[in-house]
Write a structure and sequence with these properties.
Blueprint: H1 3-7, E1 11-16, H2 18-26, E2 40-42, H3 49-61, E3 65-71, H4 72-77, H5 79-84, E4 91-95, H6 108-116
């Protein structure tokens, strides 16, 4: 797979609270794939953990998604599933929300990266 084939036709997806998702949608990331499935999920108090997990798994399985942005507090709800995803594409990036600050100690990608390097190298 070449770098050009990875970039062509790939989109972002977002899983998060309403403010986060709407902000990205206003920025123009909203897409429907051929099956008319959106590339985002708005998580509110009525959204179940199962719905979040199913959306995450669906986004990981889609070949048109290159990056999954997920609010860190939402990722915590499905931490086991997020941690199971180790492929580089789609990349999973945990982002803060308006209500919940970013905590680097909970970020699975950052923790994996820490394990790859020796602190003495820096």
């Amino acid at each position: 797979m070449t770098a050009a084939s990875l970039v062509k036709g790939k989109v972002l997806s977002v899983i998060g609270d309403e403010d986060t998702v709407v902000g990205f949608l206003l920025g123009g990331i909203g897409q429907l794939n051929k099956a008319r499935k959106p590339n985002y999920l708005i998580v509110d108090k009525n959204t179940t953990v199962l719905e979040i997990e199913e959306a995450f798994k669906e986004f990981v399985a889609r070949d048109d998604i290159a990056i999954i942005l997920i609010n860190q507090h939402v990722a915590e709800m499905i931490r086991f599933t997020v941690d199971q995803h180790t492929a580089s594409i789609p990349a999973v990036l945990e982002i803060p929300s308006k209500e919940m600050p970013y905590d680097p100690s909970k970020d699975s990608i950052l923790n994996r990266a820490r394990g790859m390097f020796n602190p003495d190298d820096f």
